[in-house]
Amino acid sequence: MPPAKKQKSSRHSGVSTQDAHSDSSDSAFESVRPRKNNKRKSTESASDESQNASKRVELEKLAPYDYVCIPRPLFDVEGENWLTWSINPSAHVEEEDVYNKLYKPKWEQEKKDGVYMSPPENHPGRKWVMMWGAWLKRNFLIQKAEYCDPDNFHMHIYTDWTSWGIIEIGENMMIEFNKAYQSKEPTRLEEMWVIISAVGLWLNEGNCVSQLIEGEAEDVPMFIGLLGCALLTTLAAVEKAGELKPDSRFIDLALVIAYYMEVSYDLPAYGVEGDCVAWRKHVVSYFEKGNLDPAKGLSTTKLRIEKLKKVNNYNEEADVPNSVANLPVTYDDNPVLKLIREEDNGKENEHPKATDKTSGSSNLKSSKGKNTEKEDDVWNWVKVFQTYKKRREPIMGGEQYDITKMTRAERAKWAFNHKDPLADIPAKDLKNNLVDFKP
Predict the structure, then answer these.
(1) Confidence (pTM)
(2) Where is this region: Disordered (predicted)?
(3) What pLDDT score does 348 carry?
(4) Beta-sheet pairing, 129-131 with 31-34
(5) Domain boundary assignment for the chain
(6) How many CB atoms lie within 10 A of CB 380?
């Protein structure tokens, strides 16, 4: 892969590392502490505390696949502000003022109105929803990503440490996804959806994508390719279940697909290109095949669809042909990317009336005519995952880049002051992911 063509700018998250019941949406954290000792400086009244306790009881009764209302992500408010600027520069809000002027007032009002974490049926037409299990997983992913960032611990390890950590976290999610995919439980598809929706939202928040693509060698494109295959596999299963439609039981269907369009639409501009992003055009096909409304996605979804229908896997600019002379050849022999390339080519070459495989289908044959292990494995997930796992030997996923899982001596070695920044936190809290970040 050629070096990144330009550095991706930071994306700020409106709701950062926090527990499932926290109301905090600040994203600037400087020190760490055990979550169980999280004593907020607050002037809450007794009635406020009673209401919060009542809300916690309600949340504890939720099932993993129940939908709840979530806050509109800050990155979407920023995207809408950018669109405003592109149309009328004088009407937009300065970037540094977006949080306080556009995001925070609305978020605070929704909390007062009881919208946050309430059932979607209480707010007809609201698109900012998510399965409860996915929201919890999204919070956990944000937390784990913080644990992989040396800057949060006042230390420097290696330049690509955070990128390696983000990929490791993503791999853990792909291992969970594969387990859900292989499951014979009746909630198999819901569990796949929990993982895909959580990862999609997580990747858009904060600096996640920026940190991810800072990595080198084949790690980044290979993971992006695997992630895309997981998404297409999920959408194929949704279609097979008859739920690829506007009134799907997956009521955040358009929104989740939009998360991945937002993550991927400009990856080639930063050197993440070729076979690993071939899945983007198929995602657009699923969106259109389901007659989904871009307005049910993000503020930029309509624009992303229009762009992704025109661009190819190597250029960010619309209608620019592939430049064969400049294609990266480093990963021609990468077995994961070769599988993805073959699958993509197979979909492109099949007669659409015969199999309708441009957007996936319930056909029991793969693009090469071989029976698949799963009826909805039209994107060859099983083989792609197994090949990826083998390529990552001796280990895929894990917690190697989680700084809270280092020994105290290791943390002290890399810390600027040569002292363990987590010295006052019990080992039990470190083991159980109870390190939190406070303003």
Answers:
(1) 0.82
(2) 1-55, 343-372
(3) 67
(4) unpaired
(5) 60-126
(6) 23
